[in-house]
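Morning, I've got a small favour to ask if you have a moment. I've dropped the whole record in just underneath, so have a look.
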Amino acid sequence: MTRSNPVALIRPLPLLLLLITATGCGGPGSLKAGFPPPADLVAVTEPKPQPGPDIVTSAQASEDYNAAVEGWGDRVSDAGARICRFHKRLGMKISCPPAKPLAPP
């Protein structure tokens, strides 16, 4: 029976640790987390505005409700598109809407 050299057994250890560490590093533009941004998840689960009884009798209440529904739809759609692009960056084969340009301050 032959006895292994302890130094020969330890020699590949630093290379193995380096490879394990390197596999956890992403390339340029990689994401740090494996989850979409929490704000987007909150936005896509935002409940739809509910109409009040006054939308039947008040033109202003009806306009306010319509504006609230439009804003809600835009927020949900925008967040869904961001989540789609998040998953596309992770490698999912999916077609997503392009990012909207940022509004000037």
